[in-house]
Amino acid sequence: MLEPGAWRKRLAPLPPGEREPALVELLRADVAAVLGYPHADALPAGKSLADLGFDSLTAVQIRNRLSMALKLRLSAAVVFEHRTAEELARHLLGLLDGEPAAAAAPEAAGAGANGPERPAYTLSSLFRTVSAAGKPVAAMHLLVTASWALPTFTAAQGREHALPPIRRSPGRSGSRGPTVVYFPAYHPSLASNGGDFPRFHRAFRDDLEVLEFPHPGIGAGAAVPQDRDALARTQAESAVRHVGGGPFVVVGRSAGGNVAHVVAHELENMGRAPAGLVLLDTYHITPDNSGKDWLLSLAAPPPGDSGPQDTGQSPVAGNDDSALAAIGAYNRIFLGWAPEPVATPTLLVRAQRPTAAMATSADADGWRTSWPAAHDVVDVPGDHRTMMEEHAETTASAIRTWIDARTAKGDR
Q1: For residues 127 and 123, what is the distance between their CA atoms, to the nearest angstrom?
Q2: What is the distance between the terminal CA atoms of the chain, rounded to a whole angstrom?
Q3: Which residues, other chains included, contact 210 with Cβ-Cβ below 8 Å and sequence gap of 6+?
Q4: Of 87, 44, 42, 93, which is closest to residue 72 (Cα–Cα)?
């Protein structure tokens, strides 16, 4: 997990001549993680930072990561303002060197003129504290309550708030296969980090195009959807604009499967039904399971966990209060939701193993996910997270096999 100020502490003991190379190495690793490369050495040589594929969303994501790692206030366009990692490193070191000594020092318990100062609490600090105490349900309720303070947009305003998709896989030139319209989970690791399991997306690289549709308000965007109708219409219309007239399959992971389902339903109403709907270990939240810590831990994993190694994500990354509140908004608008019947062929991909939290919980008998609407089921190796990491290729293969079977039957 990347702690606030972690890079600042790492650079502090180094001699002046070693600080820039060390920061460049850290920067390149973070850029690779945000853009979906397996490691820094996989970044294309000779390209400027701006030419590596940053868009408005990923630029904000890298800014958030750098801001947290160095405890600096940075421009959202910082990655576009410096041509190379070396130039950006020199800029950041200049900001650190130019700080007053008191500002650069770690926070002390501090005493003011009138005695000990009261600590300043933020939504993100409270969320981390409650999560660290092993109370994921209470932590998520905190975000849901805070979400009422956010600006919202209606279905009619959706186009101006829709975020452009991120092309996670280019697909094969001339391929007639469907485009994958992918909705990631909305959880704290996406509040300030880049993308959702690039190893999974790379499994489609030589075959299908994958477009990941970010959730407005999480990571970027000034407002969140007012309700499910606004969410469904915004993302459905955005999907149609970007896939054109070709076939496509809607895929949602974990809580992102809720979004995928309502989008598929809206697309049917628009007369542009997808060829299929795939739910990757998506849980339907009901009154019977909404208070279970093992289930909510999927959305708010404890800070002691190292997070998805393939993505470089920290599981509870939130130092952005508005993004965390936006996560609460998405959870709130699905409270009490019953999935609408859809005609689109649907596949539920289930993990074969429980997570550690599920395995040690006294009330986790029903840990395996199910879905109330008609669907096919396939079980894949791994747990809720590892099915997208070390078992990503197997998971992607199961999806492609199902898509091919639908195509062979002529299902649309």
Answers
A1: 6
A2: 43
A3: 167, 168, 169, 171, 179, 180, 182, 201, 204
A4: 93
pLDDT digits over 25-62, tens only? Answer: 999 998 888 888 888 888 888 788 877 877 666 777 78
Stated length of the chain: 412
pLDDT along the chain (412 residues), means of 10: 79 91 92 85 82 72 84 78 87 77 39 51 81 81 90 94 89 79 77 60 86 86 92 97 92 95 97 96 84 73 38 41 88 91 95 87 78 90 92 94 79 48
The structure's pTM equals 0.69
What are the two backbone dihedrals, phi and then psi, of residue 230, each rounded to the nearest 5 degrees?
-65, -40
